[in-house]
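Why predict the complex rather than its parts? Because the way molecules touch one another can change local conformation, and only a joint prediction can capture that. The input here totals 633 residues.
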Amino acid sequence: MLATVASFGRIGIEGYPMRVEVDVRDGMPQMDVVGLPDAAVRESRERVRTAMKNSGFRFPTASITINLAPADIKKEGPWYDLPMALGILAASGVLPLQALEGVMALGALSLDGTVGAVTGALPMLIKARERKVRRALLPAQNARECASLSGIELLPIETLGQAAAYLAGRGGLQPLIPTPYCAENADVPPEVDMARIRGQLSARRALEIAAAGGHNLLLIGTAGSGKTMLARCLPGILPHMTEREALETTVIHSVTDGFSGGLMQQRPFSAPHHTTSAAALIGGGRYAMPGEISKAHNGVLFLDELPEFPRPVLEALRQPMEDGEVTVSRVNARCVYPARFQLVCAMNPCPCGNYGSRTRRCRCSPHEVQRYLSRISGPLLDRIDMVVEMDAVPPEEVFAPGAPAESSALVRARVEKARAVQSERYEQMGFSCNARLPAGRLEQLCGATESARALLMQCMKSMGLSMRAYTRVLRVARTIADLAGSERVEEEHIAEAASYRGSNEKYWK
Amino acid sequence: MSGSQGLGRIGEETALRYLERKGYACLGRNVRVGKDELDLVMRDGMTTVFVEVKLRRPGVSGAEAVNRAKRRRICRAAVVYMMNTGGVDRPARFDVVELAFDGVQMYVHHIPDAFPLERGKTFV
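Output of the joint prediction:
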């Protein structure tokens, strides 16, 4: 007899519908799996056989052929164990054939019949919902990850026996009640609170501006001045994710990290080490998996010790930074992954780390300093809106009595406000923050006053700013104005914005 | 050597009687297919059962002694047998009967559906 079980596969972060067709007929006892299975799928034979026996079912002594359709896409992973087992039960008459209608199943099986988690369940179920699948049997371990999906009945299962009993009409399964995403629920304490940062007022201010406008930021400072700690504060002051953003980000993490606990609440903070390869950063591997930049989608990509990154790795960032997505092509797959991240970099000003310090002496020759700085290419620097210098906080400031610094929650409230102004201004334009403001519409949308414009002209001349630098300054000025609640960009906003260009000129001119 | 073979003969006899008591019908004993041999070919209802009889020596499980190479030989012979007697689209099964002899008595352990069709490089 022939039975078909609906299931879903995925390529990258895209789900696709597939069918597990099971044919059980008289003949030599054997089980064949066709449809481009990889090693993990071929091994399903042994898992399914043993799991069925250990769940109290008789494994049919018959010739079994299983086809994973469409047969031209390579199937990976152990996630079709459960649909295979259910198909065998239906095709050998243990389950009624019509029980499989409108149901999809996903899940690995362990030898005792327990259903194990699926990597990347979320994108598959999103596709299932699109395809109007009514009910989905999925591993209980994946339930929380997918709980925000409504419009599809999710049935979390623990064992093969449970799934079979449910399909045989004996019930016993509670459909998951969808828990919609709510940004306010997302108020988890940040990893590092800004209240813990002593001094560094100008750097704090710069971080707030970067958060409010989504600007890329470079922190240059002596060793131990708190660059890394400051950068780690950023996710805690970024605005809450919208449901769509949360879903997009969780889908990527569902594929790369396996099952997770619910939709992601905090914006991701991805901090790859400087020995990371270009493929790990951009995406790659046999199945063209997402890289660190996609894991940082809607969040922060933090590159600590920027000059230590190999040049080709840094240059690979340029295209995805422009486009907000990256195409990864490999033999087995070609995938497009979103990569709209905010880049935060930290670096020492010179090999010894003391160049420009007020208190410590630099041991490097000018040539050494120059060579160190020149590891960062001009085009990459051009894509960084703000450069901020940091120096070690003097001890009297560290141990000064007084109220602690502002907490992340307070800063975030201001950031949220500034972002709300921006998303209202850019409604229906396809972008939502100042950093994404296209150069062509900058003049029209930023609303600078005459005097502000005049000051900017003057800055361009005296600082020798390029046209690209000019647009960067204007964008940052727009954010500063938004933070100040000003409708137009005034002189003072331009002046502050230009100051974040100053260190750029100091080090790289 | 001849003693061991004699014991094997007794073992096969015991297994046959055991399966016949279970209601199986004997289709053949020591069936030669080319250079391979099937110990017992029985019929259980509609199913053709190929039985490998294994005499257990102290310390070694008889079922364990049916290794992959041995299974392949049995399967190869079984497919040819099925083709010669009416086609492979009929229910079939591979059983192992494990025997232990403690000097006085013969103990029988029957493992139905002990292994699935094993496919080597020699046939499809």
